[in-house]
């Protein structure tokens, strides 16, 4: 159904889209379904939401059907305190949404935790995903990365729980820290990432994904071992090279895994490429989407 009641904090000039909802057993999942044409599915990570993709939605909807969910617990979706918030839970709900919308022959565009969440769908349903676009993400056990291991252990402990639940640490601190140039994050835009989490009770989903960095390592690794389902599909890697989390070493691993991929490096961008680069992503995306499937890579 169309959502007639956007929250008062939502910047409708920046996000002028018609929200829709899918009822799930755990709560309502908000999503966008804009335009007509071949489907493009945009999958966000943490602590972002479909607002991250607003420039891409506006730029592609004239020619493509652009579908953008807010994971449960994020953005304009419900935030039930006791829902399943592991990456596998989010992947299950994403697959349910795409089945509900009967999405086939899709281009899947993923960022951050959207990588394992979205690619889990692509691996399980390779016949429904025709192309891949990856932005600063991963698909393997992160325990071997010392920086990630330290951060994951902190997030899983009492200090991490306090930071995430009480101080809204993820959007308040980690989003600015992930930018290549923090001046690019205006106060008005930053408010759109802070506002979905007004109280401790609303912050379980980003806290759960922080714990999942290490705790779900076996699940990531099982997906990685099935990556053959992704190989051979036309792929595009759009990478912020100043990402303090998923920087050049992660890009190098994806280059090896997807040798057919076209690679575009953004030297001055950090982790949040769709936000930092914004509409400048569109020429590369259009070139990739407009090419015949066999030539897209």
Description:
With 297 residues, the protein is of the alpha/beta class. Helix content is 38%, strand content 17%. The protein is built from twelve helices and eight strands. The chain has an eight-stranded mixed beta sheet with strand order 1-2-4-3-5-6-7-8, with helices on both faces. Helix 3 links the parallel strand 5 and strand 6. The protein starts with 18 loop residues before the first strand and ends in a 7-residue tail after the last helix. 47% of the residues are buried.
The DSSP helix count reads 12
Shape, principal axes of CA atoms? globular
Low-confidence parts lasting 5 or more residues at pLDDT below 50?
none
Radius of gyration: 18 Å
Tell me roughly what share of residues is in helical segments.
25-40%
- What is the helix/strand order? EEEHEHEHEHHHHHHEHEHH
Tell me what portion of residues adopts beta-strand conformation. 15-25%
What is the residue-mean pLDDT, rounded to a whole number?
95
How many angstroms separate the termini? 37 Å
Strand order of the largest sheet: 1-2-4-3-5-6-7-8
Instruction: Work out the number of β strands.
Output: 8
Look at the helices and sheets and give the structural class: alpha/beta
Q: Could you describe the largest sheet, including whether it forms a barrel?
A: 8 strands, mixed
């Amino acid at each position: 159904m169309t959502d007639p009641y956007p929250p008062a904090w939502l910047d409708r000039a920046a996000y002028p889209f018609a929200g829709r909802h899918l009822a799930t057993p755990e709560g309502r999942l908000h999503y966008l379904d804009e335009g007509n044409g071949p489907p493009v599915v945009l999958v966000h990570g943490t602590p972002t939401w479909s607002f991250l993709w607003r420039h891409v939605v506006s730029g592609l909807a004239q020619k493509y059907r652009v579908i953008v969910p807010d994971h449960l617990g994020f953005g304009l979706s419900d935030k039930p305190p006791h829902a399943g918030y592991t990456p596998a839970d989010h992947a299950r709900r994403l697959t349910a949404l795409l089945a509900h919308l009967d999405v086939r022959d899709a281009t899947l565009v993923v960022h951050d935790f959207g990588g394992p969440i979205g690619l889990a769908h692509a691996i399980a349903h390779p016949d429904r995903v025709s192309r891949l676009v990856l932005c600063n993400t991963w698909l393997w056990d992160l325990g071997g990365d010392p920086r990630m291991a330290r951060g994951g252990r902190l997030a899983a402990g009492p200090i991490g729980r306090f930071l995430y639940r009480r101080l809204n640490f993820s959007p308040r601190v980690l989003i600015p820290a992930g930018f290549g140039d923090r001046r690019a994050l205006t106060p008005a835009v930053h408010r759109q990432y802070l506002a979905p989490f007004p109280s401790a009770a609303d912050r379980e989903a980003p806290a759960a994904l922080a714990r999942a960095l290490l705790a779900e390592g076996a699940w990531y690794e099982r997906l990685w071992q099935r990556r053959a389902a992704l190989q051979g599909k036309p792929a595009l890697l759009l990478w912020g090279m100043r990402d303090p989390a998923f920087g050049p070493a992660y890009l190098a691993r994806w280059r090896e895994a997807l040798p057919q991929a076209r690679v575009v490096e953004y030297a001055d961008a950090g982790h949040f490429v769709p936000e930092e680069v914004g509409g400048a992503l569109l020429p590369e995306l259009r070139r990739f989407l407009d090419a015949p499937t066999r030539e897209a890579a």
